[in-house]
Amino acid sequence: MSAHAVYPPAGQASRWRALAILCVGQLMVILDGTVVNVALPAVQESLGFSPAGLGWVVNAYLIPFGGLLLLAGRFGDLLGRKRVFVTGLAVFTAASLLCGLAPDAGTLLVARFVQGAGGAVTSSVTLAMAVTLFTEPVERAKAIGVYSFVQSAGGTLGLLLGGVLTQALSWHWIFFVNVPIGAAAVLAARRGLRPERGTGRGRSTDVPGAGLITAALMLAVYTVVSVSDHGLGSAHTLGCGLGALVLLAAFGVRQARAADPLLPPRMFRFRNVSGALATHALLVAGMFGFQFLVVLYLRKVLGFDEVRTGLGVLPVSLLIGAMSLFLAPRLVARSGSRSVLLAALLLIAGGLGLLGLVSADGAYLTDVFPATVLLGVGFGLAMPALAGLAMSGATPRDSGLASGMFNTVQQVGASLGLAVLSTLAASHTGALPGGGAARADALTDGYRLAFRVGACFVLAAAVVAAAVLREPPRTGEGAPAAPAAAARRAAADR
């Protein structure tokens, strides 16, 4: 058994309880990435944010979240994942209380930054812990399906929850609701997850490398999320982007020379790890823009309120849940992760393509709902298959790092894709004349362009997956082999 197994008490029920604890923590983190979106007007009115400053309620969370995932995942390998998970969850819960109590804009932004840091620490090790809980291939496939549902559906559930809480109570409750749930999850994690020893006691933690990659990722995410304020071709954007690339290059040099690097170059020699990360980045770049842009279409063009908007995207979450929890594990066991992933990517591209046909005088049932079906089914099938492929190439000692890489790629890819798609939509709309009905036409034209570009991102993900990914070795009942065996096979195929 790996030195990094979570070691729950014996018995199948206890393993699933441990997985439930992990998923509660992950769900809280994912929800907070989007729950605030529909509450932004209420936050602005209450705390006096300027229009330009309001976006930083979201950005202050995204920057530390995207920047700290990789570092936190490595610390999970070195110090023990249970310790890292519990610490991150406690920080996230405390910061949520501070967010809800914030008396002014500055306090809220600081609390959101701390909340994003706690969310990164929590999220960085969750996938690795979920995988090591289950040794049987079929059970592991089911566990990855549960994790993928939480990871995929949390964003759209956040839109619904944010609208309901803001309308029924106040914007403060989108943060207060985390406090009792987070406190209970911390206590449950301390009891339900057995202690584990990290592999890195007495080893170097590569402090220079950690500083370089954290600074590079934070600067990259900052560059992306500030594009809307400064413009894609501005000196600010180009300068920050160049700075991020320089830091990333310096990190690469450091990793090639360090005796005990933070991100061992061997991780990229496994084609399934590299291919899954590239596929994941392109997928989320195209797909996660949907959550932002379809909300704008429903609100600004079709005139939906907060709750109706949340209900409008709810089918995506429901279908992701059904696919991830029930159908995806069976299809993966029967047809293999790679085949399921390729079919799912084509469904997602089709859904985004349908959204690329929406009209200014359209209706939800004809213009949006069919696309939500394709997106929900496709994403619900894609994420379990993709997560399994990504983790199949990681050895047990590096599974925490692979988990951190997978989540880092998701966060940075989603931020980059959202910035590109929203900038394209806004620029295209701004170039068109009109007010009143003509304004709705201009907005819709911008959204259509963004959805089509998002579909191209997903098609590119399908091309990468088809060219690079290989089906892991299969054992027992036709299910994928354990990560260690798959890693040995991948090493032989390099």
Could you walk me through the main structural features you see in this protein, from its secondary elements to its overall organization?
The protein is mainly α and 494 residues long. It folds into two domains: 12-205 and 262-493, Growth Hormone, Chain: A (Up-down Bundle); 206-261. It has helices at residues 12-34, 40-47, 51-54, 56-79, 81-101, 105-124, 126-133, 137-168, 173-176, 178-192, 207-225, 227-230, 235-257, 271-301, 306-335, 337-355, 364-392, 399-430, 437-468, 483-493; strands at 474-475, 479-480. It has a two-stranded antiparallel ribbon. The longest helix is centred in the N-terminal third of the chain and has 32 residues, at 137-168.
How would you concisely characterize the structure shown here?
By secondary structure, the protein is mainly α. It is about 80% helix and about 0% strand.
CATH superfamily of the largest domain: MFS general substrate transporter like domains
Total domain count? 2
The CATH C-level name of the largest domain is Mainly Alpha
Radius of gyration: 21 Å
Pairing-aware structural class of the strands and helices?
mainly alpha
Order of helices and strands: HHHHHHHHHHHHHHHHHHHEEH
Shape: globular
The termini sit apart by 25 Å
Query: How confident is the prediction overall: mean pLDDT?
Result: 77
Largest sheet: 2 strands, antiparallel
- CATH fold-level name of the largest domain: Growth Hormone, Chain: A
Strand content: under 5%
Topology, please?
Elements: H1 12-34, H2 40-47, H3 51-54, H4 56-79, H5 81-101, H6 105-124, H7 126-133, H8 137-168, H9 173-176, H10 178-192, H11 207-225, H12 227-230, H13 235-257, H14 271-301, H15 306-335, H16 337-355, H17 364-392, H18 399-430, H19 437-468, E1 474-475, E2 479-480, H20 483-493
